[in-house]
Design goal:
CATH class: Mainly Alpha
Number of domains: 1
Number of helices: 9
Shape: globular
CATH topology: Glycerol uptake facilitator protein
Distance between the termini: 14 Å
CATH architecture: Up-down Bundle
Helix content: over 70%
Radius of gyration: 17 Å
Strand content: under 5%
Number of strands: 0
Largest sheet: none
CATH superfamily: Glycerol uptake facilitator protein
């Protein structure tokens, strides 16, 4: 059984690794495009982010539960599978990990490579008929799917999928980015938006990436808990 400090270190490291690879993939795409080469594109960004999340969940999930995302943590909190103080501590560890990853990318990669995309900062493509409300809705729906998969594979004991939970969750991140990437950047994760925004002071429409994912996370967790986990009350 792991203690809270060990769990927080796992959340910090996992979130750090995810943000470093996820935002770093966008930086790589910009570098290739600026060099006249074919960038990795939306598919490459989606696959890179999904693989990164799958890897950290598989590697560290047995220690902390493998959240690496405040929207997942709030789902555990609202279903009483994680206490209030522990949830707050998880959030702090996740946001610190995200900030550390973003600042390291900023230090390691020349700013001409990432300036155009503000170090992979997530910004919804607002304009015309696509408003902040649309962005929040899209982020909420995509995060709903992600948290639903987390509960189905990593929480539900009867699902018997705990050993492949990381793979399923990573594929969900990939699929969500393919859908939402062109519109909101598909953060699905307040920490994913927070780290690069802090490192580059790029806060445009930042609230979209808290309101949407947290709402989606709560709805998915409550639905799965009330409908499918009635015989598996929290410890």
């Amino acid at each position: 059984m792991y203690n809270l400090p060990q769990k927080l270190i796992a959340e910090f490291v996992g979130t750090f690794a995810f943000i470093f690879i996820s935002a770093g993939t966008i930086c790589a795409d910009q570098f290739l495009a600026a060099s006249g080469q074919n960038g990795v594109g939306l598919l490459g960004i989606a696959v890179g982010s999904g693989l990164a999340f799958a890897i950290v969940v598989t590697a560290l999930g047995h220690i902390s539960g493998g959240h690496f995302n405040p929207a997942i943590t709030i789902g555990f909190w609202v279903t009483r599978r994680l206490g209030t103080l522990d949830s707050i501590a998880y959030w702090i560890a996740q946001l610190l990990g995200a900030a550390a990853a973003a600042y390291l990318l900023k230090l390691a990669i020349p700013d001409t490579t990432w300036t155009a995309k503000a170090l992979g900062s997530i910004t919804p493509e607002l304009g015309g008929d696509f408003t902040r409300a649309h962005g929040i809705t899209l982020e909420a729906v995509m995060t709903f799917v992600l948290v639903l998969v987390v509960f189905a594979t990593a929480v539900d004991a009867k699902g018997a999928f705990d050993k492949i939970a990381g793979f399923a969750i990573g594929l969900t991140v990939t699929a969500d980015i393919l859908v939402g990437g062109p519109f909101t950047g598909a953060a699905l994760n307040p920490a994913r938006a927070f780290g690069p925004a802090l490192a580059t002071s790029h806060w445009q429409n930042h609230g979209v990436y808290w309101a949407g994912p947290l709402l989606g996370g709560v709805l998915a967790a409550v639905l799965y808990d009330r409908v499918f986990l009635r015989d598996q009350p929290p410890a």
